[in-house]
Every structure is written in structure tokens, then in C-alpha cells.
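Worked example (supplementary).
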Amino acid sequence: MTAPTTTGYVDLDGLLRRLTGDEKHSASAHSTLDVVWVLYDRVLRVTPESVDDPERDRFLLSKGHGPAAYYAVLAVKGFIPEAWLDDLAGPESRLGHHPDRLLVPGVEISSGSLGHGLGLGVGTALGLRAQGITQPRVYVLLGDAELDEGANHEAIAYAGATDLPNLTAIVLDNQSATHGWPGPGGIASRFTVNGWTAATVDGRDHDAIHAALTAHQPDQPHVVAAVVDPRK
Amino acid sequence: MDSKEVTMRDSFVTTTSALLADDPRTALVLADISASVFAPAAHRHPERVLNVGIREQLMIGVAGGLALTGLRPIVHSYATFLVDRAYEQIKLDLGHQGVGAILVSVGASYDGSEMGRTHMSPGDVALFDTIGGWTVQVPGHRDEVPALLKAATPHDDPVYLRLSTQSNRLSYGGDTRLQVLRRGTPGGPLIVAVGPMLDPTLAAVAGLDVTVAYTHTPRPFDTTGLQALAGSEVILVEPYLAGTSSALVNGVLSHVPHRLLSLGVGHAEIRRYGTPQDHARWHGLDAAGLRASISAFLS
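After joint prediction of all chains, the assembly is encoded as:
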């Protein structure tokens, strides 16, 4: 495992402390920290200046509960003021326990109810393609327990069957699904059986995450299963 | 042309196919229903005519995603699958994202009566009322469909277009305000008939001193027209769940002593097949049933 070297990453701890967190979801929040960091630091072609640019990459946080890590990364990268972190879910706050795209610059979807992000991601990928916008990629972050929701499987089957090329799903696997995803291939197999390419990585290893996120093929949707320690 | 040969759905297919050709911002999302009649359009515009298979949650999610990229999605299925089944997607993937779409249903209320309760949707308009902000249009004739659809495409607001196999004999144009089609003594009883309920309502009130107003756009309701026309007795005749517009009408008339009779599809599951005409009779929405209810209310 490579040690994080980017300077901004070390600031995340302090910013997370400023967020008066959602205790119930705190473990989940931190499980996404490294994946979200690598996305914004090394993968996504989006900046605070390009949040409305049609040519930007899209990051859709489908797993909208426990967005502390997401907010912290958005603050480090300059999408939102750090001061916003001090009043999480307050009456005047733009940051809640589930993000609202109309309140937070750079947030692509409002999420919180599980199983909505991948369908929106499929539609976003289709909408870009229909307009001849071929450079951006659509990244959707889900949780392993979120995969229980049937709506995901409508999206997985359709994206695979139609070879949707500009979509990457990331499943943060902290083994929180009540009945798990047993059998050969685990979570990745639920996608590959439908025609996706897949990579399973250590969800704390930045170089491995980066390699997996950039391993998509030109004519298929891609999934990265990022495994972290089970939630306590 | 025999009106029985060309349906509202046919009009929708023709108009939508033309819109897809004329306006590159439009896209059509299907879940197998009507896919065959849209095959020529799909062939011409493969990246804007999207059939996701029998996946209605995804159908609305895809529409939300398309809208997020700036397209104007038109989404179509049976009302029960489009609205009832995908209610949370409509609420969150469209409404909560701050984007719109044009949802176009067929099989409204008991049009699918011979297929049973699984294919009926009398509560769809009431569901949109729980979300708010939707324009709801209930054409009473196939010739009202093209103008409503064309008017819905240049903007991004949420629009629900509720098509039916029930039809009035005549078309009443594109005006979204209440249109007075039969004028009684001013200040006397006002009957508001929505969409295909107009013809049975007109037949029911023969010889009665009542005003009959028609609308194909119950949301937003023409509250100005209602205030101008209403006296102390108002009767709603709606082709969906009885009472869907009661709270709205009572709110508009809250400063006026009034009585309101709300006629529409009953809440109870009848658990019978039969034709839509049978169900109209059982729900008291044929001319004879309406006449009996209206006469009792006014006597």
C-alpha cells in the first residue's frame, strides 16, 4: 500500500473533525474517503471553475448517506468554503446528512435514498452521448449494501446489454450488506455477468484505486469494487 | 375519419416522432410499451429513442439523467407502471434533482379494465398532487394531444400527459383555462368536467339550469376562471380518483359559502373485469349515473 503523498490529503483529517458528524453513519462516511480523494485528486476532469461545463467528468455520489468525506474533499479542492463544514445540517447550512445538488456547488445529484444514482448515471451517460459529448466519463459511487436495491440491477443489466461505454460504477465494499454478495467473483461478478469489465482493489490503496479507475475499456461500462474494513 | 380508428396514443406517437426529428433536444424513453410503434423513430434517432426494457425505475432514472445533461425527455408507459410503480423515482430522480420531463401515460383509470386491477391507475393524478409543481393535462380528444405535447417541449418543467381511450366527440383546442361550453343562469350551479368526462356530463345535464365548464389542464387549475364562474354550488366530474381536486377547489372558494360535489372513480377495488363502459357505470360516471348524483345534490 502506497502512502498518500498529495499535500491536500493530510488536510482532510482536520476538515472531517470540523464536521459535527452523523454518528450513525460515521464509519460509512470514512470508508469512502480514499476513493473520493483519488477521484478528485487524480481522475476527475472537473474543477470549481468547470462545474457547469458540459465537457466535465461527472461524479455521482449515489451512496448519499455519510457524505462527510465527500464534503471534506470538495472543501480541500475549493468547490465549497471550508467554513461550511462547521454547521453540518444546521438550519442555515447548505450541507446536510444527504447532499442536495441545488445547494452545493459541484454536487451532481441529490442523493440519500439508496438505489437512485446508477439510473441517473446511466441517463447522464446516454444524454452526453446523444449530444456528441464523448470526452467526459460518468462515475457513480455506491455501497455494497446499497446494491440490495433492485433499481441498481435494472441499471446494471441495461448498461451492460447496451455496452454503455462512458460509465464507471464504484462499489465501496465494507461488507455491510445484510446477506452479503457471496459466491465466486463476489460483487464484481454481478456486473461482469452483464457484460461490464471489473476490477477489485484495496479501497485504501491510492495507486491501486487509481489504476482500477483508469482501466476501463473503450466499449464497455466498468466497475471498481473497492474493499475496505467492515464497518464497526 | 372515424374517431375510433385514431386514438390519443396514435396522435402521441405521430407528434412525438415529428418532435424527435425537428428538435434535437428531445429524447424518448420507453420500457417496452409502445416500442414497436416507435421503431421507425428509433431507427432514425437511435441515441435519442431509448428502450430500457421492462425496467420502469430505470426509465425514470434515465429520464432524470438525460434532463441533467440538458435534454428534454419524453417518457411513456401505462399509467400504473409509469406513475404508480415509479413514484419514488418521479419524486427524487426528477423533482428532487430540480429537473423535469414529459411523462405520457396510456391506460388511465379503468381503460385497461379487461386486464384487471393490475392495469388500472385511478390514483395517478392524486400522486402528482403529493409532489406538487407538475402540470397535469388530461386531453378529452385525440386532436388536443399535439398542441399540448408541442407546448411542453420548449421548456424544462415537469408535465404529465394522461392519455385515454375514452374520448369526447369534439376537440376543444389548446386553451388551458376553463372553457364554458354550456351556460346556465349566472351564479347558478357550476359543473367542471375534466378531459373525457365532458360528453357524459353534457348528456347528464340535459334540461338542467347549470353551467358546464371544460378543462384538459387540471394542474395548475384555472383558479381565476373558477372564481369567476362559481356560485354557491360546484360539481367536479373527474376521470380519475373522486375528490382529487376537492381540497384545491375548496381552498379557492374558502371565502365563499359553497357546497362541493366531487365525482370521479371510487376508491374501492371493484374486483371485476368488463369494459371501461361497465366500469363507468359502476362508478356512476356514465350519463345516467352522473344525472342521478347531480340531481340529488341540487335537489
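Two points are worth noting when inspecting this output. Residues 7-227 of chain A form a domain with the Rossmann fold fold (CATH 3.40.50.970). Strands of chain A lie at 58-61, 138-143, 167-173, 197-202, 222-227.
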